[in-house]
Amino acid sequence: MKVVALVSNLLPVGDSVDELDSYMYQTVGHQIIGGYAECMNVPLFRRRIRGSSRHQKLSYQMTLDDEVEDMFVLLSEVKRQIPSIAAVSSGAIASDYQRLRVESICSRLGLVSLAFLWKQDQTVLLQEMIANGIKAILVKVAAIGLDPSKHLGKDLAFMEPYLLKLKEKYGSNVCGEGGEYETMTLDCPLFTNASIVLDECQVVLHSPDSIAPVGVLHPSTFHLEKKGNPDSNSLEKESSLVSEVLGDGPNTSNSTRQRDSGIVDLVEHTSNRVHISRTEKHNTFSICCWLENSLNSSTGLKEDLETVLTELESQLLKNGFNWQNVLYIHLYISDMSEFAVANETYVKFITQEKCPFGVPSRSTIELPLAQAGLGKAYVEVLVANDESKRVLHVQSISCWAPSCIGPYSQATLHKSVLHMAGQLGLDPPTMNLRNEGAIAELNQALTNSEAIAESFNRSISSAAILFVIFCSARTKQSERNQLHEKFVTFLDLAKSSRRVSNAIDPMFVYILVPDLPKRALVEVKPVLYVEDDTETEDETRQDHSGEGDYSFGGYKPENWHQGCVQKRVVDGKMCVTVLSISAEVMRKLQEASGEEEQQLERVSRFCVYLLNKTLSENSFSWQDTTSLRIHLSTSLGVSVERLSDTFASAFRELNEKSDGVKVDSSKEPILNVVPVLGAGNTSTSFDNIITCELFALRS
User: Fold this and answer.
1) What gap in Å lies between CA 258 and CA 48, rounded to an integer?
2) Name one Pfam family in it (predicted).
């Protein structure tokens, strides 16, 4: 990585003006910034701010005459003059407002946002800056305990003990992230050519407040001292390396038309290949779309995914929704080597412009779709009928957690449920996979998950309800055998370090799949319960086992049935159930029945019986179900369509033999069948033939 240009972002129209009322930029000390080009011997681009803070909401959208558009003009010119530029580095530590605006501009220009200071511990960061020889002086103070007459002009090394004392006494940000102070760098390791010497300066008092006076340091004169030869003459303060960028900002109406005209013509799809399922909950539900594989069809992944996304978009519009209502997307494809093709198609439909409240979180997995009689793409979306979701979308590359460059986010919180994107074992600053094997990838994926959970003031060790762990078929058996033990150890250590006393006991589902993004061996998908100021309780108070007659399909409660079911009921609001049908369970069912030719129907009725029993015992109904995912092992040799039809038949039978309608069988199926290589409750065995994953949420 090489620094190819500096961008002075940005300065006031008049040189004598020290500070603007800007939400975005620091302008105090702009008079000396021109010298940075000579200090580093790289070109510097600057622009005078013409706009103002017009779009003040957290998430930014292109707005005419906003000061952010000045940054767009500036970086556009830098990109024109230096076409090789690939990324923009900023010093964001804690400000979402500023980070999101830099990311927005980078996204529009096809650049990567680098924010290596993001979410760093400010005390440690301050110490590291001083230890690495950064000489930065305070040029503005605006906080209790800071005095313009005493502290302006002092460097960070001198101020460090006092800043730490203010943090302890008042909770101040030691790096000034709360606006407590601003700095100007006079020397640092990047200044290989020269350093800056401030000759004369003036303290300007903006507010003589007795508690928190506000003042700035106005640099009157300064010079550059060349490094390596102290007897040499001082360098020029301004040089040919400095360029000022003029020109107007983008025209929003033209830009919008350009985006609209760029939307591709969507393919016409053959209706008899398309299959839809949808759960019945009115305010939060899942819609799934898959294609029946056709021997006569020569379509590729791009065409199949376009067909599926077109149909889903149609379903959303038909129900009065659009992509901004989507919380989470499961993207299943037939070949991970075509991930780039899938992503290019995906971003034609789901964009940040279409999702002003935040783009959905996403998990992308390769599945054995062809083996199960499906086309090359399969998509499941979780939809909400309100705009209350809270989305965490960090596109910048940092040391915090892996970036999500594109229209998919790290996590989405809705109705107390945190849906986290599938986490790979990526090292955040390099975005490379840990190369020491599956155990190392798992540890990194969990570390990344914990960082995301901490953004919601939670820990995966105490708030996780369910972990779905996807394992690549390339994972060695010796490593698979250790995954679950290492997983539990990580959670135990995290729990003890946080001294957690009231934690949810999470459930685990391990899924064996052909491949994962970036050829990863492990992907972790956590689901967390996030409720403010509420005691979380497990299932004990809600469990009314044995209080009703839930017999169905010839099944009545038996002790061994409980070994098939895991469930968590939290605060009486959420019921999550995992039902596992192994080869051994199938044999038991066959022995009890004495019939061989009805195996699939028998298993389907048994699953519906146990799921219905679990919901009813805990005072939930099928109308509370937000998703019902059934992982089908390809070892059974059954198509997705056949198993889906068999379950639909079991639900119709449930309706006929129970009081009141349980599931409306006149509509689309409420379940989606997901073909996998295998599944299990631990990583040591993937011998589940069918694994049901049910979420129910009471309004």
Assistant:
1) 27
2) Ribonuc_L-PSP
β-pair type (574-582, 565-570): antiparallel
> Of 557, 499, 521, 356, which is closest to residue 444 (Cα–Cα)?
521
Cα separation of 383 and 362, whole Å?
A: 13
The DSSP output letter for 495 is: H
Q: Provide the token pair at 317.
A: 């519009």
How much helix, strand and coil, in percent to the nearest 5, is found in the chain? 30, 30, 40
Please tell me whether residue 650 adopts helix, strand or coil conformation: helix
pLDDT reported for residue 253:
47
Phi, psi of 304 (to 5 degrees): -65, -40
440: left (phi over 0), alpha (psi -120 to 50) or beta: alpha
* Distance (Å, whole) CA 157 – CA 135: 8
CA distance 454 to 118: 14
> Residues 6 or more apart from 456 whose CB is under 8 A from it?
392, 411, 413, 418, 528, 530
**Which residue bears the tokens 């961008």?**
7
Reduce the DSSP state of residue 148 to 3 states and report it.
helix
Residues 492 and 161: their CA atoms lie apart, in Å, by 36
Phi and psi at residue 384, to the nearest 5°: -125, 145
Tell me, what amino acid is at 105? Answer: I
pLDDT averages per 10-residue partition of the chain, 699 residues: 75 70 82 91 90 85 89 92 93 90 91 93 96 96 95 97 96 94 95 94 90 92 84 55 81 42 41 82 93 72 95 93 96 96 94 90 96 94 93 94 89 96 96 95 97 95 96 95 95 86 90 97 97 49 50 79 93 94 88 67 92 93 94 93 92 78 71 95 92 93
- pLDDT computed for residue 658 by the predictor: 66
User: Strand order of the sheet with strand 194-207?
Assistant: 181-187, 135-141, 214-226, 194-207
Any long-range contacts for 544-550 (C-beta under 8 Å, 24+ apart)? 544/617, 544/618, 544/619, 545/617, 547/617, 548/616, 548/617, 550/609, 550/612, 550/613, 550/616, 550/617
In three-state form (DSSP H/G/I as H, E/B as E, the rest C), the secondary structure along 507-530 is: EEEEEEECECHHHCCEEEEEEEEC
Q: CA 308 to CA 350: how far, in whole Å?
A: 13
Which amino acid is it at 494?
A
pLDDT score at 292 = 87
Residue whose C-alpha is closest to residue 517's, from 373, 342, 399: 342
CB 129 within 8 A of CB 121: no
Helix (H, G, I), strand (E, B) or coil at 250: coil
Phi and psi at 10, nearest 5°, equal -150, -175
Residues in the chain, total: 699
Helix (H) or strand (E) holding 576: strand 574-582
Contact status, residue 250 vs residue 62, Cβ threshold 8 Å: yes
Which residue in the block uniquely carries the two structure tokens 């919380």?
327
Q: Is the dihedral of CA 429, 430, 432, 437 positive or negative?
A: negative
Residue 10, preceding peptide bond in cis (omega within 30° of 0): yes
Q: Give the C-alpha separation, 660 to 574, whole Å.
A: 23
What residues form DSSP beta bridges with 256?
none
d(CA 436, CA 135): 39
- Residue indicated by tokens 């940040």: 352
* CA-angle at 289, arms to 285 and 295, nearest 5°: 165
Distance CA 390, CA 476 (A): 38
Question: Distance between CA 127 and CA 123 in Å, rounded?
Answer: 6
Tokens read off for 8 = 């002075």
- Assigned token pair, 600: 């699939």
φ/ψ of residue 270, rounded to 5: -80, 115
Q: Output the pLDDT for position 405.
A: 77
